[in-house]
TrEMBL record:
Pfam family, one: Apiosidase
Signal peptide: none
Source organism of this protein record: Cellulophaga geojensis KL-A
UniProt domain DUF5060: residue ranges: 36-102
Source organism, top-level taxon: Bacteria
Protein name: DUF5060 domain-containing protein
Apiosidase-like catalytic domain span: 135-414
InterPro entries: Apiosidase-like_cat_dom, DUF5060, GH, Ig-like_fold
Amino acid sequence: MQNVLKLLIVTSLLSFTVVTSQLKKENYTLNTVFKIPKWEVLDITFTANQNVASPYTANFYAIFTHSNGTVQQVPGFYNGNKEWVIRFSSSLEGNWKFTTYADLKKIHHKKGSVTVSSAATNNHGALVIPKNDPQNFYYEDGTPYFLLAFECDWLYALDYHNKKGLPKTEHLLNLLNQNGFNQVVMNVFSYDVSWTKDSKLKQHPEHEFGGPKDIFPFLGNNNNPNYSALNPEFFKKLDRTISLMHNKRIAAHLMIYVWNKLVAWPNMNTDADNMYFDYVVKRYQAFPNIVWDISKEALYYGRADEAYIHGRIERLKTNDKYNRLVSVHDYKYCSNFPDKVDFISSQNWSHNIYNKMLEAKTKFKNKPIFNIEHGGYEESMYTVFTGDYTNAETCLRRNYMCLFAGVYTTYYWQGTSWNVIIYNPFEQPKEFYKPKFIYFNYMQKLFSKLQFHKMKPIPWHNGSGYNLTDDKGTVLIYIHKENYGIDAAFLKKKDENRTMQWFNTLTGEFTKEVAIKKQGKFKSPWAEKADAILISRLK
């Protein structure tokens, strides 16, 4: 029976070997009109046999001019093997003409055209923050974006050695899609963890991705780095992952550095450091699903200081011609220098995380707040990193506490967040812990239906719960399962005709919507069993 199951799993993996990618690749030829849909990505490849002393820092870009007069500068990059790439995407339909500019004569002053057709129905463009609603995220076409993130630092490594496709990555991303996650917090490169690894991993080496001997963004490897040049094969593999995420409409929250994962980075502000940083920005900015993050825990671990982070942000904004959103995984930095970031990232493990997030929401009235790490790391088959909370329901509650303070949030599972990646948890043996992704499926559906971006925290209406209210009078009250009953007298005004129903955070179940009684406490039908949300609407 076990052999049959293994065969079924292998067969299902093989069925995913052909990756459907939105990254269209075309070789440059004179008089060719390239065609792409709006908000999709096109690589135009040029070949030049001429040797360049430092190809990864060489001057190469194109100026695109739309028929309406709009001008877009697009950086190019060296792709190895004498290939040079202009990577282009457009938020405008219609006709573009381009001219290249380069240090190399063979790829200088090449002219061409691109026709951009209408967008696919499920492609809403890049993530933006509108001036008329600066505490919320939207897509470029105006569609609200309820950010629900998932941490997977080693995602780049999951199918790195598979030359044919990304079956494991696709399987995991499909799970995320099915359960409401629409952003992955990830590193360009992580090497290994410093904490003691679970001995059970020795029995399942297929789940261990830390310490790769042959994966490195520079020449050489992490133990013996050669900073004289970059490794184009590394970035070609990362292209596949970012492109697949774009295809599935999952944002890549790309942390360019990480200090506590044992990476042998070059010294700060050296030529090698700048070469790596600039190359990442040049190579990935055309993807509409990119969100920049300078570094995970940017001011921790004694490497970077504020001046360095300032310089990186300025460098990014100079080089990013698409103006993708940028933040820093460090609340102290974001709090002290809010004008340098597009949204505030917070890493907070406090027991009163609701109050901490509410303080941030109140303090930064012109920025979205994103709790990127709340100290809850749901348990898995392996003990990877426990933080302060591992129980699935407790971790879920902390996510809701953030949401009811009006801020966005992130989910961590110990089976995918770091060096351990169990990409197919629901196909593992019985004894393996199965993560509660489904809880977040219910969360995403709830807040998409009730329009989170229109909800505001009303702390003076909290009572023993947490309150969100929209401008039409719809009220949500989050109530812990230990709560005996909540008075919420403001819902019982004599001059208001209100309804109520309950939502179970663990099952996604809704009770029937009924009229509110003017007497007695509101009591959850799942008291002692599940946290619940009381939903009250004005008739």
